[in-house]
Design goal:
The protein is of the alpha/beta class. It has helices at about 5-15, 35-45, 65-75, 75-85, 155-165, 190-195, 210-220, 235-245, 265-275; strands at about 105, 115-120, 130-135, 140-150, 170-175, 200-205, 230, 250, 255, 290. The chain is built from nine helices and ten strands. It starts with a helix and ends with a strand.
């Protein structure tokens, strides 16, 4: 129920002194749950004559215990708390990936020819173009980001040349869906330009909040296990992006669920890779291959 519908319901029963019974979940305010309208009406300043009954999915005796354990393996701590426990507290930091630490850093990663290799691209020109080189170990469910190209005013020709000069056998190309839009100068899109080189990209559309949670789950799941590793020597821009990626805030309060669009090129490329390759909730055909 939206706040608008709730207020409309109050107005409709005011003259008959009727009652309203609302049920629902906390919602998707993972970063500032206190901004949810239910908090304001039932917790912060409770309406006269109102009562609130709270219970968690984790406490539901009929919810399968094995499913909760599985979810702890696949969800990050913040998302698990908001989805399966009642937690009205606001995170103590505006950092998006506050769990990222030394446990996620490696040095001197050795390229493994036996693992699939992907390149994920966030398009740009005035702001930086970012391409990440990633390997995935399916037996251990671990992601390794081991090389990067992050530079502004990089033409498609230059980007293509730098990618192809790397000694990696690429098994897949992933990009931002915005790359399928036509450019005024050339009349074709970035992905069309690459298609002429024999390369096809994968993409999907998805909400930022949900896909950010996917990245968080690989940085650290609810059981405290890291599954994302970044070579800090070869990928300094990505490490810097991750450490500084934050939500907008005012007076110490997060004001929006979407992160600030600043110095996010490499971290966006990482999100595109994970949301296309490692989302267990994907519907069939949600990930598409651009074939124009």
């Amino acid at each position: 129920m939206s706040e608008h519908i709730f207020l409309e319901a109050i107005a409709r029963v005011s003259d008959t002194q009727g009652y309203i019974w609302c049920t629902g979940s906390l919602g998707t305010q993972y970063n500032n749950p206190k901004s949810h309208w239910a908090y304001r009406f039932f917790k912060e300043k409770p309406l006269s004559g109102s009562e609130i009954f709270e219970w968690t999915t984790a406490d539901n005796p009929y919810y399968p215990r094995e499913e909760l354990e599985r979810l702890k393996d696949t969800l990050d701590p913040r998302t698990f708390r908001q989805m399966f426990e009642i937690d009205w507290s606001v995170p103590g930091t505006a950092l998006v990936y506050d769990e990222f630490d030394d446990a996620n850093l490696i040095k001197g990663y050795v390229y493994n020819k036996n693992l699939p290799t992907y390149v994920a691209i966030d398009w740009g020109f005035a702001h930086a173009m970012a391409a990440l080189f990633i390997q995935y170990d399916a037996t251990r469910d671990k992601i390794y980001v081991f090389d990067e190209i992050v530079k502004s005013k990089l033409t498609l020709e230059q980007l293509y040349g730098q990618i192809m000069s790397r000694p990696y056998a690429l098994n897949g190309w992933i990009c931002d869906i915005a790359g399928n839009q036509e450019r005024e100068q050339s009349g074709i899109s970035n992905v069309e330009w690459f298609k002429n080189k024999g390369i096809k990209f994968q993409f999907r559309t998805a909400a930022i909040q949900a896909t950010v949670s996917l990245v968080r789950s690989y940085i650290r799941n609810t059981k405290g296990i890291a599954r994302l590793f970044v070579d800090e020597v070869k990928c300094p821009k990505l490490v810097d992006n991750i450490r500084n990626y934050s939500y907008p805030q005012k007076d110490g309060i997060i004001t929006n669920e979407n992160p600030v669009k600043k110095d996010d090129d490499a971290v966006d490329a990482l999100r595109y890779y994970i949301m296309n390759r490692h989302d267990a909730t994907l519907r069939p055909n949600a990930v598409q291959t651009i074939k124009r």
